Amino acid sequence: MAKKELQMNKFHNYQQATKVLTIREKVGQLFMPAAFINDSEQEIRNLERLISECAVGGICFFHSRASAATNFEGKKKVPYNENSFETLKKLIGRYQKNAPFPLLIAIDAEWGLAMRIENTPQYPYAITLGAIKGNSGLIFEVGSNIGSDCKAAGIHWNFAPVADINNNPDNPVIGYRSFGENKLEVAEKVVAFTKGLQSTGILTSVKHFPGHGDTDTDSHLGLPLINKSREHLLENELEPFRIAIENGVDAVMVGHLNVPALSGDQNIPSVISEKIVRDLLREELGFRGVVVTDALNMHAVSRMFQQKGELEWLAFDAGNDVLCFAEHIREGMLKIVNNASVRQIEESFERVWRLKEKAFHTPASISKSLINPDDLNKKLANASLTIYKGAPVEIENLKERGLIGIELSENSDNQFFKIIVKKYPLKVYSTSESDLENLKGEMDQTENVLVALFPPKAKPQNNFEIPDRELDFINKLINQKNVILYLFGNPYVLNLIDLERVKVAVIAYQDFKVFQENAAGHFLGRVRAKGVLPVSIGKWSDLN
User: Fold this and answer.
1) Model pTM above 0.90
2) Cys-Cys with 403: which of 225, 234, 329, 448 at CB 3.0–4.6 Å?
3) What CA–CA distance (Å, rounded) separates 402 from 272?
4) How far apart are CA 192 and CA 431, in angstroms?
């Protein structure tokens, strides 16, 4: 069968493919370089040539080279492209046209395509979903909606969900991307999210094996050390992965972690450790699907190997099937062809090709439109809203002793107070429009202050980018007044707040319009808080 005919065969039968492809082409199928939605025409052509000449098996889409995490969190200007979704679909068409064999198209869409693409549906972060108790159907629905959007874009594979147990509040890279710190709660939501994606025909991948939760180093920039015993890891961090494997996840992504108790070596990254990939994941946990590396351009591993292709070869030799974000494909292919056994290559090629069969057996999306996330996000807002401390307040009692509102936010168009003042007119001051010094003088005549806190960032670096003057202001306020706090952000922000003296603390998690509307409804007594905090908060965690 001619290669062109094989490409047009929608079923991509493995028995046919293994006879037609050369060893070099089979090795090419194991590589998944990065594709950037906002690349230049020359960069697009370079990738087209690489796909064509190396028989690359798939590509993983990212927003832009400037936004890549190895860019030290944005020192280059990140382009804005309001037409990113249409650009993505056109690029997928171009790259597929240049591929000798159909490409697997992958993306990170943990909270929807919005993770990588402007003007596309966004769903809550995993930590928000972690606050939802006893309603796996909602988590399934999130996965299903995201899967439908991926199908509409022409994507086959979502590198999600995150199966890491986040038990370190200083984790700079996982944190809000984890469902929480309880292994069974995390596992339950991982399975529900996975099943939701799979219900639309989208491939899944749990990450970051063997568990990236208890680290304070970002593996995009350095190699995190996890210095726990093997027994502890098997009982805790590895449990969500084991349960996901038992429930049919399509792939496992191996992270860049230094785990001596599992690797037997103080300095070997997990992604190139045969003891972790082959012995633990394959043999002990019994995973028979595709193993994919975390991005090989990440500094945790990329800076360890000066010889081009060496990292790619070592990752493959450790037992990984798909080499994601490999930067030295030609050199890596040559090393694998020269050093690997035919059996090694054939086994990985079969796993990858059968994954392709699964992807291409699923009919393409009929709808080219994206799902409006608002209805589902309303349900999620209602199910996740969490009272951390205190109880619902009686507004009339507050007004008798004076009540004002303060909004700590960079945005002047938030909805929380706009909804409240329609029912109970009160003075509201925003740091987006007023100076903090002026606000201090406005509070002399009141005992009660309703504070809405909108942290600029979800990551903990630099105190979530909350200015020091605002943190000082709110903590002084808590010590002087009766403060009712609504937090529209990462719950770990509460570690920065004097919670022993705050009267009421409510976590809304997201700043989406529907989450603000729900929180306003709670303050007005129309909504009940049903969520349960999925992580421990500092020294005040016993209040939970």
Assistant:
1) yes
2) 448
3) 62
4) 40
Q: Which of 259, 252, 255 has its CA nearest to residue 286?
A: 252
Alpha-carbon gap, residue 520 to 542, rounded angstroms: 27
- Residue closest to 408 by CA, chosen among 462, 482, 474: 474
CA distance 114 to 289: 28
Residue type at 523 in one-letter notation: F
Token pair 């990858």 in the structure block, residue: 352
- Cα separation, 458 vs 11, in Å, equals 42
User: DSSP code of 82?
Assistant: T
Helix (H, G, I), strand (E, B) or coil at 100: coil
330 CB neighbour count, 10 Å cutoff: 15
Mean pLDDT by runs of 10 across the 544 residues of the chain is 44 86 98 96 98 98 80 68 94 97 97 97 98 96 98 97 93 94 98 98 98 88 92 97 98 97 92 98 98 94 93 98 97 98 98 96 77 98 97 75 89 93 91 79 83 96 94 94 96 96 96 98 95 83 36
- CB distance 141 to 189 below 8 Å: no
